[in-house]
Automatic annotation (TrEMBL):
It is found in: Membrane. It comes from Polyplosphaeria fusca. GO terms for cellular component: membrane. InterPro entries: LAAT-1 (IPR051415), MFS_trans_sf (IPR036259), PQ-loop_rpt (IPR006603). This is PQ loop repeat protein-like protein.
Length: 287
C-alpha cells in the first residue's frame, strides 16, 4: 500500500475525534483505579501490551502518512496505557509507587527511541517501493493490540460473564475512538485494510464485553435483589458468592497444575536421593 498523498478534511475531522477519544479514554479508568486503590479485574497484561503496541502503531501511522490525528493517537494511547499498567503494579502487585513510575519513564523513553529510529530507517526504503518492513510493523501492531484482549475472556469465564474492574465510561469512549478512527480510514483516498480490521475488531470485542455484562445482570437479577433486601453487597452475599464461584478459573487451574508438577518433581528428587543413599550403604567397602 502506498503512503497517503492527500488527506481529505473529513478524514482529519473524524481522525481528530477518534484521537481525542483515545487520548482521554483511559482517564476514567485511571481515576477509578486511583479512587478505589484497586485494579482487580483489570488485566495488567492488557494494559502493558497496549502500551507496547503504541510503538509499531505509531511507526506504521507515521510512515504511511496517515492524517496527523492518527499519528498522534498511538503516542497518547501508549502513555495512558502505561500509567494504567503502573497502577496495576502499585495496587495489584504492591509495588512502590516511585519504582513503578521510574520503570514507566524508562520504558516510554525506550519506546520513543525505538519509534524514532525505525521511522527514519524504514521511511526511505518505503518511499522507494520496499513495503515489507512497513507491513511487518503493521502486523506486529495488529497482533499486540488484539492479543491484549486475550485475558478478558478468562476474566469473564471466572466471573460468569461479569465485568469487574473495567470502567464502562472507558469502554464507551474507547469504542468511540475505534469507531471514528475506522471512519477516518474509510474516507481517506486509500483504505488501510489492516488497521481497518483492527479498529473493527476493537469495536466488536468491546461491544461483546458489554453484552456479556448485560447478560450477567439478567441472570443475576434475583440474586442481586435478594442481596439488596438483605442489606448486603452482591460480592458479600453468600448465595451470590457461591453462584459466582462456579465460574471457570483457568488461570488458577493452570497455576495449580504447575504447582502439582513442581511438587511431583520435588518428590521424585527426594526419592532419588534416598535411593542413592541406600545404595551407598548397601555397597560393601573395598578391602
Amino acid at each position: 500500500m502506498a503512503p497517503q498523498t492527500h488527506i481529505p478534511i473529513s478524514a482529519n475531522v473524524l481522525g481528530t475525534i477518534g484521537t481525542v477519544c483515545w487520548c482521554v479514554q483511559l482517564l476514567p479508568q485511571i481515576w477509578r483505579n486511583h479512587r478505589t486503590k484497586s485494579t482487580v479485574g483489570l488485566p495488567a497484561t492488557m494494559m502493558f501490551l497496549w502500551s507496547i503496541s503504541g510503538v509499531p502503531f505509531g511507526i506504521y501511522a507515521i510512515v504511511q502518512k496517515f492524517n496527523i490525528a492518527l499519528q498522534v493517537q498511538p503516542q497518547c494511547f501508549s502513555l495512558f496505557c502505561g500509567v494504567s499498567w503502573c497502577q496495576c503494579l502499585i495496587y495489584g502487585r504492591k509495588w512502590r509507587q516511585r519504582n513503578a513510575y521510574i520503570l514507566l519513564i524508562v520504558l516510554l523513553a525506550l519506546f520513543a527511541g525505538i519509534q524514532v529510529g525505525l521511522v527514519f530507517a524504514i521511511r526511505p526504503a518505503y518511499a522507494h517501493g520496499t513495503s515489507w518492513p512497513v507491513i511487518f510493523i503493521g502486523i506486529i501492531a495488529f497482533i499486540l493490540m488484539i492479543s491484549a484482549f486475550l485475558p478478558i475472556p478468562l476474566e469473564l469465564m471466572k466471573r460468569r460473564g461479569r465485568i469487574v474492574g473495567i470502567d464502562f465510561v472507558f469502554l464507551a469512549i474507547d469504542w468511540c475512538g475505534a469507531f471514528f478512527s475506522l471512519l477516518s480510514l474509510a474516507v481517506q483516498e486509500e483504505f488501510d485494510v489492516m488497521f481497518g480490521i483492527m479498529y473493527a475488531l476493537c469495536c466488536t470485542i468491546e461491544m461483546s464485553m458489554v453484552v456479556s455484562h448485560l447478560v450477567w445482570m439478567v441472570r443475576t437479577r434475583k440474586l442481586r435483589q435478594r442481596a439488596r433486601e438483605a442489606g448486603c453487597a452482591f460480592d458479600d452475599w453468600p448465595e451470590a458468592v457461591e453462584w459466582e464461584g462456579r465460574g471457570i478459573d483457568l488461570e488458577a487451574r493452570f497455576r495449580d497444575l504447575i504447582g502439582r508438577q513442581k511438587e511431583v518433581c520435588e518428590v521424585e528428587e527426594v526419592e532419588a536421593t534416598i535411593e542413592a543413599d541406600e545404595e551407598k550403604r548397601t555397597v560393601p567397602k573395598a578391602m
